[in-house]
Design a protein that fits this description.
single chain
């Protein structure tokens, strides 16, 4: 039973992992495997979307590190789901590797946000405010 205790406490490495995921999302359009032959307007929309989502994931993870709130974790889950859906919404799903990376990175963001939300679900607002990493 003590193994489950590890997953019940919000730890600072989870916030650092969220920040790292945000950086990886921002740089993902420039990974060497993505297709450069996508039409420029589609590519610029995809880059803008990826940049904004990555910065928001990074920012929410930083906020969690500084001042823990439940809405930040809900926001991370929503951003992860948006990143998963983005290739199909913005029409760059033809770039199989970039679509795969966005689905993987978005899935990890969703799982991390859900884990953190589960860990903090039982804490009161006062306990969240006093929570130190």
């Amino acid at each position: 039973m003590s193994d489950f205790r590890f997953f019940r406490i919000h730890r600072s490495w989870e916030d650092w992992a969220g920040m790292l995921l945000g950086v990886l999302i921002v740089v993902s359009p420039w990974f060497p495997f993505s297709k450069p032959d996508v039409i420029d307007s589609e590519r610029s929309t995809m880059i803008l979307n990826t940049f904004v989502v990555g910065l928001m994931v990074f920012g929410l993870a930083q906020l969690e590190y500084v001042a823990l709130q439940r809405w930040e974790e809900v926001g991370e889950v929503a951003l992860g789901l948006w990143l998963i859906a983005s290739p199909f919404i913005f029409g760059y799903s033809g770039d199989e590797m970039l679509r795969l990376w966005h689905v993987i990175l978005g899935g990890i963001v969703v799982l991390l946000g859900a884990l953190q939300l589960w860990q903090d679900w039982h804490l009161s607002d006062q306990e969240l405010a006093n929570h130190r990493q």
